[in-house]
Amino acid sequence: MIGISIGYYIKSKLIELINFFRTIILNFIMVEIIKSIVFGIIQGITEWLPISSTGHLLLFDKFITLNLSDDFKELFMVVIQLGSILAVLVIYFNTLNPFSLKKSKEENSKSFTIWLKVIVATLPAVVFGLLFDDLIDSVLSTWQVIAAMLFIYGVIYVIFEKKNSVMKVRVTSLDDLTYLDAFKMGCFQTLALIPGTSRSGSTILGGLVIGIERTIAAKFSFFMAIPVMFGASLLKLVKLGYSYTTLEYWVLFVGTAVSFVVSMLVIKGLINYVRNHDFSIFGWYRIVISILVTIVFLF
Q1: C-alpha span between 14 and 23 (Å, rounded)
Q2: How far apart are the C-alpha atoms of 244 and 254, rounded to whole Å?
Q3: 83 lies in which domain range?
Q4: What is the C-alpha separation between 290 and 295, in angstroms, rounded?
Q5: pLDDT averaged over consecutive 10-residue blocks of the chain (299 residues)?
Q6: Exposed e or buried b per residue across 99-125, where buried means at least 16 C-beta atoms within 10 angstroms of its C-beta
Q7: Largest distance between two CA atoms of the chain
């Protein structure tokens, strides 16, 4: 009888212990999933606004760090951007689809030409990205560099927008944008390889510099992001491999899905915004956030 009682006691304690560890594991999983949702929101907003998505992701990681492997976090920060790219493909599917049965041959030809211009614009980023990928990851991905780029480009935005009103616009449609224009925007895109710069900001600003109307520069900037981000994600997968835990894959999936949904809203909102506004407000935001980042990390 005593032996049976002891057996029941041990069994109940084992069940309590199992439930305790199960609760801890479930709480850990939920916390990491919630973090991935936060990162997805940050990515979806900052990828398209000229305030640097990579910079914000790296900085927020200092405060809400994913408690997962270092290789996975490096992969996560890049692949989560695929959600943002899928949003571009969905929103502009008709514009970008060169095989649509609903469009005329001339319209499909124009879509095909857009892709050719996107490829031309991608070449500079591909070359510099392959050459300096390791340098960027090991040396430039620091809060000092991010804060400096946020501040420097913030000042550039503010100064440029004060002078931009007198600049002549010569490209007012995607059809008017030449291959040389595309290549020049691609050169501006390479600036965004430095964390804290902003890919959308550098390309849209570059488009304005060479005389492209703001909404056209914004749209083509979105298109330019497609091969660059797919390529960057593929490069990370090849470099870091595919051996991750089930939880890590779930975190990646949730973050990417949230990034997709948020990007859908932000892209539409930004196009409407740039029709009647400039980037001055983003310049001031960058200056303020760079100062806050510096204060936080120093003190």
Answers
A1: 14
A2: 15
A3: 2-298
A4: 9
A5: 62 62 64 90 90 78 80 84 90 92 91 95 86 72 87 91 75 93 94 86 91 92 89 78 83 93 92 86 92 85
A6: eeeebeeeebeebeebeebbebbbebb
A7: 96
End-to-end Cα distance, the chain: 65
**Contacts of 231 by beta carbon, 8 Å cutoff, 6+ apart:** 122, 126, 129
DSSP letter at 191?
Answer: G
Q: Report CA-CA distances (Å) from 49 to 63, 149, 202.
A: 22, 15, 11
| Number of domains within the chain | 1
* Residue that has been written with the tokens 């890590």 in this structure: 248
Q: What are phi and psi of 165, to 5 degrees?
A: -65, -20
Residue appearing with tokens 């979105």? 222
* Residues sharing a CB contact under 8 Å with residue 297, sequence separation 6 or more, in sequence order: 62, 143, 144, 147
The candidate with the shortest Cα–Cα distance to 250, out of 27, 25, 36, is: 36
